[in-house]
Fold this sequence. Notes:
The complex is a heterodimer. By secondary structure, chain A is an alpha+beta fold. Chain A has one helix and nine strands. Chain A has a six-stranded antiparallel sheet, with no helix packed on it. Chain A has a three-stranded antiparallel sheet with strand order 6-7-8, with no helix packed on it. In chain A, strand 4 (86-92) and strand 5 (99-104) form a beta hairpin. Chain A is elongated, with a radius of gyration of 23 Å. By secondary structure, chain B is mainly alpha-helical. Chain B contains four helices and two strands. Chain B has a two-stranded antiparallel sheet. The interface between A and B is large, with 40 and 44 residues. Strand 1 of chain A pairs parallel with strand 2 of chain B.
Amino acid sequence: xNTLHRIGVFAASLLILAALSEVxxxxxxxxxxxxxxxxxxxxxxxxxxxxxxxxxNQPVIIIGSNTGTTDFAVSTVTMVHIPTIMMRWIGxxxxxxxxxxxxxxxxxxxxxxxxxxxxxxxxxxxxxxxxIHNGASTSESGTVKLIW
Amino acid sequence: xxxxxxxxxxxxxxxxxxFAIWTIFLAGVLLQLFSPHLQIAHNAFVIPPDAxxxxxxxxxxxxxxxxxxxxxxxxxxxxxxxxxxALLYRHTLxxxxxxxxxx
Lengths: 148, 103
């Protein structure tokens, strides 16, 4: 009985320690991770992603890259989003490397190309959101990273 | 307070304290269920691919904030609970390890 009791105490202590290290370890990693989010997209021809809301009232860096084997490129844009008013941005286009800057709340306004052939882009959805739009004739995939 | 009242007080005290500490510990563990479960890759939170296809509004800022808040709260509760349990059962634990050392 005494041995059983000891095993019970030991097992319970181990279980609590395991839960403690798991939860605290996960929290430490989560808190140490910078405020950045990666959106991996795969969009059929002509498809549009869910609307994405960037952080408000602060600069947000958006790095996008389409990773299709025949049409890959990278572009970046720095954006400020004033809620319900509009988003303003400045960046460098994929493909041409042109510097762009604009601001809008109008649906469909082009923000930046993510691919070499100018088919996949970020577009304004509303004053508060943008979408990823695939205007290519093939399914395309890639990544959009937001840092704020 | 007479001796009977004192005994009753100690008995009720002996009941609610372990209950409260276990509740804090389990609440911390259960809180994990309410986090958005964002994966971390290359030092960034990964938004689940399903979320981008479902047509709903996606707010990475709110998701990341929620994840960080829940993880922090969960860690604090579990840490407090585990410390409380260690203190509550210190005699049992010390006896266990002491006896083990003696054998």
